[in-house]
Amino acid sequence: MTDVIAAPPQPRIPVGSGDDASFPVRRIHCVGRNFADHAREMGASAPDSKAARGNPVFFCKPADALVIDGVVPYPRGTAELHHEIELVVALGVDAPPGVLDPADAGALVFGYGVGLDLTRRDLQAAAKAKGLPWDTGKAFDASAPVSRLVPAGECGDISTRSLTLHVNGEVRQHGKLVDLIWDVPDILHELSKLYALRAGDLVFMGTPAGVGPLQPGDRFHASLDGVVEFDGHVVDGGIDAI
């Protein structure tokens, strides 16, 4: 069979500190309202206990929304581009058929990174107010800046780590992963009820409180403490500027 158009390049993320290893990305799953403090700052209720947490909120971004060089074009159609720092989980093994047991979830994880779930907040808020999907607010070009990936075996116990985002040298967000409402095994279990999880999938795990605006010229420094750091900046002119 012959392609009738040129095949687009496979989105890939660098792995480790060298230049010769990369992780080809299949799909990006994202988790909403996974830190109680962020849920509250967005006007949503947050569970008081694990038993009361209900179901997680999921949405997706296209794989070609990834930004690996840190250069983020200010997107079209918004006056409120917001940052949301998140743990990124990369799956290196297909999940077995059926619903995944949380005890087996760790075997799927290839590695971890840190990323930003960029959000056109005004478009998201307008869609939510009308009971419409959030796609235009979340799944847009260059909406998923992400660091290199670090193999899980080099990260230790990820639940002991924390996330920090600096914008123009000032701390905007900080959160401990122990405070996730649904941890990594929980989320992979819940996702497996809805999707076939495959090698190449990424999961953006949700953001702590402190989300706020980014403007052209802003510089950001995201860190998953003791594991990986990621620097970037916002440029004017939309996706056509890069």
Task: Output the keywords.
single chain, 242 residues, mainly beta, Fumarylacetoacetate hydrolase, domain 2, 6-stranded mixed sheet, 5-stranded mixed sheet, 4 helices, 12% helix, 33% strand
- Using the coordinates shown, work out and report the CATH topology: Fumarylacetoacetate hydrolase, domain 2
- CATH architectural group: Alpha-Beta Complex
Mean pLDDT: 93
Major pleated sheet: 6 strands, mixed
* General form: globular
Q: Give the total of beta strands.
A: 18
Helicity level: 10-25%
Distance between the termini: 33 Å
Global Rg: 17 Å
What's the CATH first level?
Answer: Alpha Beta
Q: Order of strands side by side in the largest beta sheet? A: 4-3-15-8-9-12
The share of residues in extended strands comes to: 25-35%
Q: In DSSP terms, counting alpha (H) and pi (I) runs of 4 or more, how many helices?
A: 4
Number of domains: 1
Description:
By secondary structure, the chain is mainly beta. Helices cover 12% and strands 33% of the residues. It has four helices and 18 strands. It has a six-stranded mixed sheet, covered by helices on one side. It has a five-stranded mixed sheet with strand order 6-18-17-13-14, with no helix packed on it. Strands 10-7-16 form a three-stranded antiparallel sheet. The mean pLDDT is 93.
